[in-house]
Description:
By secondary structure, this protein is α+β, with helices and mostly antiparallel strands. The chain has helices at residues 2-7, 10-16, 23-37, 51-74, 88-93, 95-105, 118-127; strands at residues 42-43, 48-49, 80-86, 109-115. The chain has one domain: Winged helix-like DNA-binding domain superfamily/Winged helix DNA-binding domain (Arc Repressor Mutant, subunit A), CATH 1.10.10.10. 58% of the residues lie in helices and 13% in strands. The strands form 2 sheets. A two-stranded antiparallel sheet has the order 1-2. A two-stranded parallel sheet has the order 3-4. The protein is globular.
Amino acid sequence: MYYVAKHQGVSAAARHVPYGIQQPAISAQIIQLEDTLVVTLFQRRPFELTTEGRELFAFIEPFVYGLPNLADRLRGGWEVRLRIGAPAAILHSYLPRLLKALRLRFAQIYFARLSGWQNELETRLLADDRIDEPLI
């Protein structure tokens, strides 16, 4: 919900979620959340948060936004961060086993995975776009 609200739509959310999730999965999660809460969180076309959606976003935004600082404190302030940008298929199919092996050998490394097209990834990586990368 956080990324859908922040980026104003499911397609945009799929491009910005740092852990590589596809649009159909995001849509299914939103539908499940709406069914559980028995409310509509946003109008689809044109995108607009409902009153309930704005309330939920206001509740979760400080939590998600504060995760990087909390993670730093939990690690004792020491972190090595490797940012990897690739198409979603690469992030899902090829990298997980490699990253798991690296994590076992170098426990202090945090991997931030960004999904998208090359020009978009270059822009985000060069800008050090941390706000879109909560450490979850």
